[in-house]
Each structure stands twice: as C-alpha cells, then as structure tokens.
Write a structure and sequence with these properties.
The complex is a heterodimer of chains A (122) and B (175).
Chain A (H helix, E strand, L loop, with lengths): L5 H22 L7 E6 L2 E6 L4 E6 L4 E7 L2 E6 L6 H4 L9 E4 L4 E6 L12
Antiparallel strand pairs in A: 1-2, 1-7, 3-4, 4-5, 6-7
Chain B lengths: L7 H20 L14 H9 L2 H19 L5 H24 L5 H24 L4 H29 L1 H11 L1
The chains are: A alpha+beta (122), B mainly alpha (175).
Chain lengths: 122, 175
C-alpha cells in the first residue's frame, strides 16, 4: 500500500475525462446565439435572431409574413381571420413563441436553455 | 455472527470519528455549496481497508445517519441524496477492491467511490429535484469531488501505514 498504483492514475484520468465530457455536454450549446425556428406546412426554417429577414411562410390559407428585426420576431401579416398572431406582437426571449393555428405556422425562439438557473441552496 | 461483528469496536469507533469530522466540516464555511472536502469519508476509507464488507456497510449507514442528524436534514431531499450516494460509493469501492486487489490503493478507490456517489447524486437531483439545470453544476462538482477524494485517499493511506494504534487494534482483534 506504499506507492501510488497504476489503477490510481487510471481512476483519476477517468474522473477527469467524465467531468470534461459532461462539461462539453452542459456548456456546449450555451454560447450559441438565439435562433428563430419557423414551422409551417411546407417545412421548417432556422434563422439567427440578430440578422434582419422577412420570410413568407406558405400555409393552407395563404402566406404568413414573418419579420425578424431589432433582435425580435413578429408576424406582420397573416391570411387568418382572428389575426391573433399579428396582435401578439414581437417576441425576443428564448422559449417565447407565436402561433398562427389556422394557417399552421409556429414561430419559436430557441438557442439557450429556456429557464436560466437563478438560485440554489443546499 | 461472531465473525460478522468481530471488529465491531472498530466499526463503532470509526462511526464516531465520522460523526465528529462531519460536525467539524459543518463549521467550515463553504464558498459554494458543492465545495466540500468530505472529511467524514476519511474513516470510511480506513474502514474499507480494515473491516469486513458487512461491517463496512454498517459503518456507511452509521455515517449517513450521523451526518444528516448533525446537518439537520434527516427528513429532506438531502437525506435521499446522501443515502443513495454513500451506498453507491460503498458498493463500487467494495467491488473494485475485490476485482483489483493490490493493484489499486485507497487513492484510486476513493476517486472511484466519489465518482459513483457524485454521479448518482447528480442523476437523482436531475431526475427528481432540479431538472436539467443540474448538469450546469455537474462539472465543477465532479472535479472538486475528484480532487478532494484523491486527497482523502492519500490521507487515509498515510494514516493506515503509519498508525501504530490502528495496527495494534487490528492485530488485537484477530487474536
């Protein structure tokens, strides 16, 4: 029991490797920028929230126009009757979404974890 | 029964030392909740090297009970975490000790034990209590756990090699 054995080093390196692996998993997609995910009948698109875009999404009723500007996303016009999606205004935080159910368009902001850790006690 | 509890005196004494060290640890302020040394595990490592497996598991149970009594967390989720973690670590250390024998010292055993304990605690915390954010805390938790486990393993091994009292206690028991 005097010297440090080979398996001791092995244990140490396995422990470090496991920690590093979990670190990559946990922090890997943290630094990524926020993205706008747009889902419609004709497909799904991802746009960075920072750049300005105007996207026309084809749905069963017609074209829903999605505008990304000033780090937020909004629906500027929609062929649906209620216009709930237009009235819900711009969203800019991860986890927030806008939906136009009649035209089957869902817009969501993704990227970072949806709830941030804000307190912990032991 | 006689052989099972042959070193019962030593078990009780190590449990008492674990209780004492747990209270010492409790009065040391922690800059972060997971930055703990795990001093109470020191007698467990000595028990791992000197006690029969049943007596060792009894010692682990006594240490967990003593620790949650001192911390005042007997009826909280900390108890579940502590209980599961300690026994996972105890079983892993017993298993690896049986397989590896003299090719591993208390340092390696301590690191494997810490990994089992911390890994299971994180898993339970993620599944039952805190959700996915638990993994944000995982890397520093595991890293500090590894370093303190290696340090404690080193201390326990030095103590085992140098303590004449322990040597007498063990040989006295066997007579």
């Amino acid at each position: 029991m005097q010297r440090i054995k080979v398996l001791d080093f092995l244990a140490f390196f396995i422990a470090i490797a496991v920690s590093a692996l979990i670190a990559f998993q946990a922090y890997g997609n943290q630094s990524g920028t926020l993205q706008v995910s747009i889902k419609g009948d004709s497909g799904e698109w991802l746009f960075p929230l920072e750049s300005d875009h105007t996207i026309e999404v084809e749905g069963p009723l017609g074209k829903t126009v999605v505008v990304i500007e000033d780090d937020s996303v909004r629906v500027s016009s929609s062929p649906c009757r209620e216009k709930t999606c237009v009235k819900s205004g711009p969203v800019n935080r991860p986890g927030r979404w806008i939906a136009c159910l009649p035209n089957r368009v869902i817009i969501a902001i993704t990227g970072r974890s949806e709830q941030e850790l804000d307190g912990l006690t032991f | 029964m006689d052989s099972l509890f042959k070193r019962n005196n030593l078990t009780a004494l190590l449990a008492a030392v674990a209780l004492f060290l747990a209270s010492i640890e409790y009065i040391i302020p922690k800059p972060l909740p997971f930055m703990r040394l795990g001093l109470a595990n020191l007698p467990l490592l000595i028990g791992l090297a000197t006690l029969a497996p049943p007596a060792f598991l009894l010692l682990v149970l006594l240490k967990v009970m003593g620790q949650v009594l001192i911390m005042g967390t007997l009826f909280s989720h900390i108890f579940i975490l502590s209980f599961c973690g300690s026994f996972a670590s105890a079983l892993v250390m017993l298993l690896i000790k049986k397989i590896a024998g003299h090719r591993i010292s208390l340092i390696g055993l301590s690191i494997f034990g810490a990994m089992a304990s911390n890994g299971l605690q994180l898993l339970i915390a993620a599944l039952l209590f805190f959700g996915r954010q638990t993994w944000l805390l995982a890397p520093p938790f595991l890293l500090i756990g590894t370093i303190s486990a290696a340090f404690l393993g080193f201390l326990a091994r030095e103590y085992l090699c140098k303590s004449t009292w322990l040597a007498r206690e063990i040989s006295g028991d066997e007579q």
